[in-house]
# Entry
Amino acid sequence: MFQHPAFNILTATCPSRTSLARIANKWTAMVVIALSDGPMRFGDLRTVVDGISGKVLTETLRDLERDGLVTRHAYGEMPPRVEYELTTLGRTLHTPLQALGHWAEKHIEEVLAARETYDARG
# Structure
């Protein structure tokens, strides 16, 4: 029986590295967190993820769909309606990404103080 090699994100050729790069992207994290409450339309996502351009949101959603983290549902209605939703796999990312978001909010004052101290040495 064929056995997969052990995956190691520290190895340059490991495919898990591209996965890590995708989920470590700030826009990916924000889209996953936004979609954690349920399906959303493109315009609603763009409103919730403040500061993201339409082009970047489109690219992010396509990448997430390609990786099996988001599904796109197009409804045969007039006017057309499209919604995006986390897949089962995508929902597994919510907890760790939300934890990172909470960490960033909790520690931003310390980070800003450290930056100020560092820049003052310049």
